[in-house]
C-alpha cells in the first residue's frame, strides 16, 4: 500500500492514477482545503482507498498509515498566496503537517521510501554568471529598480549584467517568500528523519507544473491556470514585469511519472532531484502559446510592468541528475502541452 497525501489535488491525483495503473494499492489522504476545493473532485480514482482528513491531525495520519509501505507526500499549500497574513497557514499545512506525518512514521518504525513534493522555489533566484566574476549570487532586486523597469538582477561585485544558467541540485538555497521557506523546511525535516531512521527520502523539486486538474481562479493557482482563465473570459493575460521571466514549464504527467520512478526504483535514490522539462521558456512565451489556441478576437497578452515582492527573475533547471539516477525523460513538449492545456479540465 502506498499513501498519497494530497491525493485529491492537482499533482497528487495524477500520482495516484499512475500508481494504480502500475498495479499498486493506493490510499489517498486529503483535507480538501476550501481554498483549493469545493468538494471531492470527480476525477478522484475510485480504485484508491480514501480518507478525508488533515495531515496535521495525528489520529487521522495514524489511521492513514495502517499497512502502508511507502509514502508520496504531496499535501501542501502552494503558490504565493494573498499576502504575509497567509504565513501561519503555510507553516501549519506544510511544515507542521510534515512533522506530524514524520512523527507517525517514526512511531511505526517506518524505514521505507518517502517521496516529498518539494519545489524549485527553494533556490530563490536561479544560477547566474558574471563575465568578470564568474558564478555569483544574485542579490534581491530593490523596489526602486523594479519600479523603474530594471528587472534583471545585477552582479553584486561590479553591478554588471548577469547571465542565467540552469540550476543544479547542489546550488545554494535561498528561499525568498513564505511558501519557499516552508518547502525548504519540509526538506530539512525529511532529511533529519532519514538520518535518524535510515528511511530513503527523495525530494522532488518541481518546477512550474501545468496540466489538467489545475485549480482555477484562486490566489493559489499557478500562472498557467490564471492566464487560461482570463483567455476563457475573453480577457488578455496580464504579464508582470516585462514577461521575460524564464521558467521551466513541465507537464503534470511527467511530474507524476517522476514520482513513480522514485517510488519504484530498484535501488532507492535519495536527496533532491529537479523535475522539469529541461527547456526554459519565458512567462510571455507561455502566455502567447495559450493565446494561440484561442479565437482571433481574444486580446493578446498584455505587459503590465507590475511586480510582486517575493518573485524571482529567472530560475530553470538542470535535469542531468534525475535523468542519470532515475532514467527520467520528459515526454510532453511545450507546444503540444500548452495546446492541450488550453482546453484541459480544470478544477473549479
Order of helices and strands: EHEEHEHEEEHEHEEHEEEHEEHEHH
How many β strands by DSSP? 16
Physical arrangement of strands within the biggest beta sheet: 3-2-1-4-5-9-14
Report the sheet with the most strands, covering strand number, pairing sense and barrel closure. Answer: 7 strands, parallel
Bin the strand percentage.
15-25%
The residue-averaged pLDDT reads 93
Name the overall outline.
globular
Evaluate the radius of gyration.
20 Å
Regions with little confidence, pLDDT below 50 for 5+ residues: none
- The separation of the N and C termini measures 30 Å
Number of helices: 10
Fraction in helix = 25-40%
Secondary-structure-derived class:
alpha/beta
Characterise the protein shown here.
With 348 residues, the chain is α/β, with parallel strands linked by helices. The chain has helices at residues 10-21, 58-64, 87-107, 143-147, 178-197, 223-232, 252-264, 283-291, 320-326, 334-341; strands at residues 2-5, 26-30, 49-52, 70-73, 113-119, 127-130, 134-136, 163-165, 200-206, 208-210, 238-239, 246-247, 249-251, 271-275, 281-282, 302-303. The chain is 32% helix and 17% strand. The strands form 5 sheets. The protein has a 7-stranded parallel beta sheet with strand order 3-2-1-4-5-9-14, sandwiched between helices. Strands 7-6-8 form a 3-stranded antiparallel beta sheet, with no helix packed on it. The chain is globular and about 55 Å long.
